[in-house]
Amino acid sequence: MSYSERDKYGMYKHSAGSGGAAGPGPALMGADTLLGEKVVNAYDVELGDIKEIMLDMQTGQVAYAVLAFGGFMGMGEKLFAVPWQALHLDTAKKRFLLNVDKDRLKTAPGFNKDAWPDMADIQWAAEIHSFYGTDPGRARGPDVGPGTVSGDASTSSGASLDPRAGNQGGDTDISHIRGSNIG
Fold first, then answer.
1. Judging by beta carbons within 10 Å of its beta carbon (0-12, 13-18, 19+), is residue 153 exposed, middle or buried?
2. Are residues 122 and 163 in the same domain?
3. What is the CATH number of the domain that holds 90?
């Protein structure tokens, strides 16, 4: 089920081109509609789904999306705090993209539902941001668009992680992500 199907208030019912009043999405989205949203990588491999969205109460910004990965029917699944800026909202396919290989995600710092980390701990945050190649000092949300992944969404230096195992490729190596649905 996509965010538009979880829209109980009709905020995504109209688009700017439909002749009706444009709703807030995708520039502004209801947090509740994003819970359960699928997260895939550049090769269309499903990485999990969003279980929670964590807000930084000091800044008012979204800090992390908590991604559930692995397990069976909620049993044995591992949770990961993914920096919000590491995600890309694919508006064409109504899902999130995360530029991480599935095998690499298995080695990401994670936790189980009964032992959440102190997400306000600076050392913990530095480890998470280092893993995903994001800048903890930069408040920025996911890139939004139809199926594109900007290198700026992954790191402050403009380079992005290549989702293939063992590669640390730059933006010149993500051309396979861009599709014909770019407008």
1. buried
2. yes
3. 2.30.30.240
